[in-house]
Amino acid sequence: MKKAVKTAPTRPMRPMQVQMQYLTLALSILAILMMAAFFMLAPPPQAPPAPCPTPEPLPSPTVCAPQTPEHGVCDAKAYLSRVMATYREMMRSEVPYPEYDPCTKTWNAIVRIPSTGGERRVFVRINDTPALMLDNAYLEIVRPPFITEDRVLTNGTLLLAGKINCSNGSLVRMMEFSDPYCPSCILGDEKVGAFTQKFNSSVDFEYHILPSTMQQMEERFGREDVNRFAYYLVCTQKQHLLSAFMPCAIQKYRQKGVEAPLTKEELDACLPGSALDLPQFESCLHSAYAEVAFDKSLAQTYGVTETPVVLFDCKYRVLPEFLETGFCYTHPNATGCR
Asked: 21-31 b/e with 16+ CB inside 10 Å = b?
Protein backbone atom coordinates (compact mmCIF):
# COMPACT_ATOMS: atom_id res chain seq x y z
CA MET A 1 0.00 0.00 0.00
CA LYS A 2 1.20 3.38 -0.92
CA LYS A 3 1.88 5.77 1.77
CA ALA A 4 0.41 9.23 1.50
CA VAL A 5 3.12 11.89 1.10
CA LYS A 6 2.67 14.81 3.29
CA THR A 7 3.57 18.28 1.80
CA ALA A 8 4.49 21.22 3.86
CA PRO A 9 1.88 23.89 3.78
CA THR A 10 2.77 27.03 1.60
CA ARG A 11 3.41 30.01 3.72
CA PRO A 12 1.46 33.14 2.71
CA MET A 13 3.65 36.14 1.46
CA ARG A 14 4.19 38.92 3.83
CA PRO A 15 2.79 42.38 3.00
CA MET A 16 6.32 43.91 2.80
CA GLN A 17 7.44 41.38 0.17
CA VAL A 18 4.38 42.11 -1.94
CA GLN A 19 5.11 45.83 -1.86
CA MET A 20 8.73 45.31 -2.91
CA GLN A 21 7.68 43.20 -5.88
CA TYR A 22 5.23 45.87 -7.06
CA LEU A 23 7.84 48.61 -6.61
CA THR A 24 10.44 46.70 -8.63
CA LEU A 25 7.92 46.13 -11.41
CA ALA A 26 6.92 49.82 -11.49
CA LEU A 27 10.56 50.94 -11.67
CA SER A 28 11.23 48.55 -14.52
CA ILE A 29 8.25 49.85 -16.49
CA LEU A 30 9.28 53.46 -15.85
CA ALA A 31 12.84 52.77 -17.05
CA ILE A 32 11.51 51.19 -20.24
CA LEU A 33 9.26 54.16 -20.91
CA MET A 34 12.10 56.66 -20.35
CA MET A 35 14.41 54.82 -22.72
CA ALA A 36 11.69 54.71 -25.37
CA ALA A 37 11.06 58.45 -24.97
CA PHE A 38 14.80 59.17 -25.23
CA PHE A 39 15.12 57.36 -28.54
CA MET A 40 11.89 58.86 -29.91
CA LEU A 41 12.71 62.48 -28.96
CA ALA A 42 16.45 62.51 -29.55
CA PRO A 43 17.47 64.99 -32.31
CA PRO A 44 18.62 63.47 -35.57
CA PRO A 45 22.38 63.30 -36.02
CA GLN A 46 23.77 66.53 -37.40
CA ALA A 47 25.59 66.60 -40.65
CA PRO A 48 29.23 67.65 -40.48
CA PRO A 49 29.73 71.40 -41.05
CA ALA A 50 30.18 72.41 -44.64
CA PRO A 51 33.70 73.54 -45.49
CA CYS A 52 34.27 77.29 -45.91
CA PRO A 53 33.76 78.28 -49.52
CA THR A 54 36.83 79.21 -51.42
CA PRO A 55 36.65 82.94 -52.22
CA GLU A 56 36.57 83.79 -55.84
CA PRO A 57 39.45 85.92 -57.03
CA LEU A 58 38.55 89.58 -57.50
CA PRO A 59 38.47 90.72 -61.08
CA SER A 60 41.36 92.85 -62.12
CA PRO A 61 40.54 96.59 -62.23
CA THR A 62 39.05 97.76 -65.46
CA VAL A 63 41.19 100.12 -67.42
CA CYS A 64 38.95 102.79 -68.89
CA ALA A 65 39.64 103.80 -72.40
CA PRO A 66 40.93 107.35 -72.83
CA GLN A 67 38.28 109.77 -73.93
CA THR A 68 37.94 113.47 -74.46
CA PRO A 69 36.04 115.13 -71.58
CA GLU A 70 33.26 117.61 -72.16
CA HIS A 71 35.33 120.41 -70.62
CA GLY A 72 38.98 121.30 -70.45
CA VAL A 73 41.05 121.40 -67.28
CA CYS A 74 40.97 125.20 -67.16
CA ASP A 75 37.17 125.20 -67.29
CA ALA A 76 37.07 122.58 -64.53
CA LYS A 77 39.47 124.64 -62.40
CA ALA A 78 37.40 127.78 -62.91
CA TYR A 79 34.28 125.91 -61.79
CA LEU A 80 36.18 124.47 -58.81
CA SER A 81 37.15 128.00 -57.73
CA ARG A 82 33.48 128.96 -57.69
CA VAL A 83 32.70 125.87 -55.60
CA MET A 84 35.48 126.76 -53.15
CA ALA A 85 34.20 130.32 -52.84
CA THR A 86 30.93 128.89 -51.55
CA TYR A 87 32.58 127.05 -48.65
CA ARG A 88 33.87 129.11 -45.75
CA GLU A 89 36.74 126.73 -45.00
CA MET A 90 37.93 126.49 -48.61
CA MET A 91 37.62 130.07 -49.78
CA ARG A 92 41.11 131.00 -48.61
CA SER A 93 42.89 127.96 -50.02
CA GLU A 94 44.81 127.76 -53.29
CA VAL A 95 42.74 126.42 -56.21
CA PRO A 96 44.34 123.20 -57.54
CA TYR A 97 44.07 121.79 -61.06
CA PRO A 98 41.49 118.98 -61.13
CA GLU A 99 42.28 115.61 -62.73
CA TYR A 100 39.87 113.86 -65.09
CA ASP A 101 38.72 110.27 -64.36
CA PRO A 102 37.41 108.63 -67.57
CA CYS A 103 35.84 105.74 -65.62
CA THR A 104 33.47 107.97 -63.65
CA LYS A 105 33.51 110.90 -66.07
CA THR A 106 34.30 113.28 -63.23
CA TRP A 107 36.89 115.91 -62.40
CA ASN A 108 38.56 115.28 -59.04
CA ALA A 109 40.63 117.61 -56.88
CA ILE A 110 42.14 117.76 -53.40
CA VAL A 111 41.88 121.15 -51.69
CA ARG A 112 44.41 121.61 -48.90
CA ILE A 113 43.39 123.72 -45.90
CA PRO A 114 46.21 124.78 -43.56
CA SER A 115 45.26 124.88 -39.90
CA THR A 116 46.98 125.15 -36.53
CA GLY A 117 46.38 121.44 -35.97
CA GLY A 118 48.00 120.44 -39.27
CA GLU A 119 46.87 120.40 -42.87
CA ARG A 120 43.38 119.17 -43.67
CA ARG A 121 42.22 117.98 -47.07
CA VAL A 122 38.87 118.28 -48.82
CA PHE A 123 38.07 115.93 -51.71
CA VAL A 124 35.95 117.54 -54.41
CA ARG A 125 34.31 115.64 -57.30
CA ILE A 126 32.69 117.44 -60.23
CA ASN A 127 30.53 115.73 -62.85
CA ASP A 128 31.73 116.33 -66.44
CA THR A 129 28.24 116.96 -67.78
CA PRO A 130 27.54 119.54 -70.52
CA ALA A 131 27.12 122.00 -67.64
CA LEU A 132 29.68 121.21 -64.95
CA MET A 133 27.98 120.13 -61.73
CA LEU A 134 29.29 119.56 -58.22
CA ASP A 135 28.90 115.90 -57.29
CA ASN A 136 30.43 115.76 -53.81
CA ALA A 137 32.80 117.52 -51.42
CA TYR A 138 33.87 115.90 -48.20
CA LEU A 139 36.52 116.50 -45.57
CA GLU A 140 39.11 113.82 -45.00
CA ILE A 141 38.64 112.15 -41.64
CA VAL A 142 42.03 111.61 -40.06
CA ARG A 143 42.40 108.84 -37.53
CA PRO A 144 43.42 110.37 -34.18
CA PRO A 145 46.82 109.39 -32.81
CA PHE A 146 45.14 108.49 -29.51
CA ILE A 147 41.65 108.35 -28.02
CA THR A 148 41.08 111.26 -25.68
CA GLU A 149 39.77 110.90 -22.15
CA ASP A 150 37.47 113.91 -22.68
CA ARG A 151 33.72 113.30 -22.55
CA VAL A 152 30.83 114.84 -24.44
CA LEU A 153 28.29 116.28 -21.98
CA THR A 154 25.84 117.85 -24.40
CA ASN A 155 25.92 119.27 -27.92
CA GLY A 156 29.22 121.02 -28.56
CA THR A 157 30.35 120.70 -24.93
CA LEU A 158 33.25 118.61 -23.66
CA LEU A 159 34.39 117.84 -20.14
CA LEU A 160 38.18 118.00 -20.34
CA ALA A 161 39.92 115.11 -18.65
CA GLY A 162 42.22 115.96 -15.76
CA LYS A 163 41.46 119.70 -15.70
CA ILE A 164 40.47 121.41 -12.47
CA ASN A 165 38.17 124.36 -11.87
CA CYS A 166 40.04 127.67 -12.23
CA SER A 167 37.16 130.07 -11.50
CA ASN A 168 37.59 132.34 -8.51
CA GLY A 169 34.65 133.73 -6.63
CA SER A 170 31.07 133.89 -7.86
CA LEU A 171 31.95 134.56 -11.54
CA VAL A 172 32.65 131.76 -14.01
CA ARG A 173 35.98 132.20 -15.78
CA MET A 174 35.30 132.28 -19.53
CA MET A 175 38.20 132.12 -22.03
CA GLU A 176 37.78 132.49 -25.78
CA PHE A 177 40.54 131.40 -28.18
CA SER A 178 40.18 133.18 -31.50
CA ASP A 179 41.95 134.76 -34.48
CA PRO A 180 40.85 138.31 -35.40
CA TYR A 181 41.15 137.64 -39.17
CA CYS A 182 39.66 134.13 -39.24
CA PRO A 183 36.22 134.24 -40.99
CA SER A 184 34.67 131.59 -38.74
CA CYS A 185 36.20 133.36 -35.72
CA ILE A 186 34.53 136.64 -36.66
CA LEU A 187 31.17 134.87 -36.67
CA GLY A 188 32.08 133.18 -33.40
CA ASP A 189 33.09 136.50 -31.84
CA GLU A 190 29.61 137.85 -32.56
CA LYS A 191 28.04 134.87 -30.78
CA VAL A 192 30.42 135.32 -27.86
CA GLY A 193 29.57 139.04 -27.69
CA ALA A 194 25.84 138.31 -27.54
CA PHE A 195 26.41 135.66 -24.88
CA THR A 196 28.55 137.88 -22.63
CA GLN A 197 25.96 140.65 -22.82
CA LYS A 198 23.26 138.28 -21.62
CA PHE A 199 25.36 136.59 -18.93
CA ASN A 200 27.61 139.50 -17.96
CA SER A 201 26.68 139.08 -14.30
CA SER A 202 27.73 135.41 -14.33
CA VAL A 203 30.99 135.27 -16.32
CA ASP A 204 34.43 136.87 -16.24
CA PHE A 205 35.44 137.02 -19.92
CA GLU A 206 38.99 136.76 -21.34
CA TYR A 207 40.01 136.97 -24.99
CA HIS A 208 43.03 134.90 -26.06
CA ILE A 209 44.66 134.85 -29.50
CA LEU A 210 45.53 131.63 -31.31
CA PRO A 211 46.82 132.53 -34.81
CA SER A 212 45.44 130.51 -37.70
CA THR A 213 44.52 132.82 -40.61
CA MET A 214 47.07 135.29 -39.28
CA GLN A 215 49.87 132.79 -40.00
CA GLN A 216 48.78 132.50 -43.62
CA MET A 217 48.55 136.27 -44.02
CA GLU A 218 52.05 136.84 -42.62
CA GLU A 219 53.60 135.35 -45.76
CA ARG A 220 51.91 137.97 -47.92
CA PHE A 221 51.80 141.06 -45.74
CA GLY A 222 54.52 140.60 -43.13
CA ARG A 223 54.34 139.78 -39.45
CA GLU A 224 54.27 143.36 -38.16
CA ASP A 225 51.24 144.48 -40.18
CA VAL A 226 49.31 141.29 -39.51
CA ASN A 227 50.01 141.10 -35.78
CA ARG A 228 49.14 144.75 -35.13
CA PHE A 229 45.43 143.91 -34.82
CA ALA A 230 46.23 141.21 -32.24
CA TYR A 231 48.37 143.57 -30.20
CA TYR A 232 45.61 146.19 -30.15
CA LEU A 233 43.23 143.53 -28.84
CA VAL A 234 45.64 142.55 -26.09
CA CYS A 235 46.20 146.12 -24.95
CA THR A 236 42.59 147.32 -25.07
CA GLN A 237 41.61 144.25 -23.04
CA LYS A 238 44.12 145.21 -20.35
CA GLN A 239 42.16 148.44 -19.88
CA HIS A 240 38.78 146.62 -19.99
CA LEU A 241 37.93 148.33 -23.30
CA LEU A 242 37.85 145.28 -25.56
CA SER A 243 34.07 145.38 -26.00
CA ALA A 244 34.32 149.04 -27.11
CA PHE A 245 37.17 148.47 -29.57
CA MET A 246 36.64 145.07 -31.12
CA PRO A 247 33.23 145.46 -32.87
CA CYS A 248 34.45 148.64 -34.57
CA ALA A 249 37.64 146.96 -35.81
CA ILE A 250 35.79 143.91 -37.14
CA GLN A 251 33.36 146.16 -38.97
CA LYS A 252 36.23 148.03 -40.63
CA TYR A 253 37.78 144.73 -41.72
CA ARG A 254 34.52 143.65 -43.30
CA GLN A 255 34.21 146.98 -45.12
CA LYS A 256 37.64 146.53 -46.71
CA GLY A 257 36.27 143.83 -48.98
CA VAL A 258 39.75 142.33 -49.48
CA GLU A 259 41.92 140.03 -47.43
CA ALA A 260 44.41 142.54 -46.13
CA PRO A 261 45.33 143.49 -42.55
CA LEU A 262 43.90 146.59 -40.96
CA THR A 263 46.26 149.53 -41.08
CA LYS A 264 47.39 151.48 -38.02
CA GLU A 265 45.11 154.36 -39.06
CA GLU A 266 42.10 152.06 -39.31
CA LEU A 267 42.81 150.53 -35.91
CA ASP A 268 43.48 153.88 -34.25
CA ALA A 269 40.11 155.12 -35.49
CA CYS A 270 38.43 152.44 -33.36
CA LEU A 271 40.23 153.23 -30.10
CA PRO A 272 37.70 154.41 -27.48
CA GLY A 273 38.99 157.99 -27.23
CA SER A 274 39.12 159.58 -23.80
CA ALA A 275 38.35 156.29 -22.07
CA LEU A 276 41.76 154.97 -23.15
CA ASP A 277 44.96 155.58 -21.22
CA LEU A 278 47.06 156.23 -24.31
CA PRO A 279 50.56 156.16 -22.70
CA GLN A 280 49.73 152.89 -21.00
CA PHE A 281 48.33 151.54 -24.27
CA GLU A 282 51.42 152.46 -26.29
CA SER A 283 53.69 150.93 -23.65
CA CYS A 284 51.64 147.74 -23.78
CA LEU A 285 52.07 147.43 -27.56
CA HIS A 286 55.83 146.90 -27.13
CA SER A 287 55.33 143.75 -25.03
CA ALA A 288 52.08 142.43 -26.50
CA TYR A 289 53.95 139.78 -28.52
CA ALA A 290 54.72 138.01 -25.23
CA GLU A 291 51.00 137.90 -24.41
CA VAL A 292 50.25 136.27 -27.78
CA ALA A 293 53.01 133.71 -27.20
CA PHE A 294 51.53 132.96 -23.78
CA ASP A 295 48.09 132.50 -25.35
CA LYS A 296 49.56 129.86 -27.71
CA SER A 297 51.01 127.88 -24.81
CA LEU A 298 47.76 128.24 -22.88
CA ALA A 299 45.84 126.81 -25.85
CA GLN A 300 48.19 123.82 -25.93
CA THR A 301 47.54 123.21 -22.24
CA TYR A 302 43.85 122.69 -22.95
CA GLY A 303 44.24 120.90 -26.29
CA VAL A 304 42.85 123.80 -28.33
CA THR A 305 44.15 123.52 -31.89
CA GLU A 306 41.42 125.29 -33.88
CA THR A 307 39.52 128.51 -33.44
CA PRO A 308 37.07 129.69 -32.24
CA VAL A 309 36.73 127.76 -28.98
CA VAL A 310 35.49 128.80 -25.52
CA LEU A 311 36.48 127.38 -22.13
CA PHE A 312 34.40 127.64 -18.96
CA ASP A 313 36.11 127.04 -15.60
CA CYS A 314 39.20 125.74 -17.49
CA LYS A 315 37.50 122.34 -17.74
CA TYR A 316 34.53 122.73 -20.10
CA ARG A 317 35.25 123.32 -23.80
CA VAL A 318 32.31 124.71 -25.79
CA LEU A 319 31.87 125.71 -29.42
CA PRO A 320 30.47 129.25 -29.89
CA GLU A 321 27.24 128.06 -31.55
CA PHE A 322 26.40 126.05 -28.39
CA LEU A 323 27.49 128.60 -25.79
CA GLU A 324 24.23 129.08 -23.93
CA THR A 325 23.33 125.38 -24.11
CA GLY A 326 26.73 124.30 -22.81
CA PHE A 327 26.94 126.99 -20.14
CA CYS A 328 23.50 126.34 -18.70
CA TYR A 329 24.07 122.58 -18.80
CA THR A 330 27.25 122.92 -16.73
CA HIS A 331 26.02 125.87 -14.61
CA PRO A 332 22.25 125.37 -14.27
CA ASN A 333 21.97 127.77 -11.34
CA ALA A 334 23.62 130.71 -13.12
CA THR A 335 21.58 133.87 -13.57
CA GLY A 336 19.81 133.66 -16.93
CA CYS A 337 19.70 129.85 -16.98
CA ARG A 338 16.82 129.33 -14.60
From this structure: eeeeeeeeeee
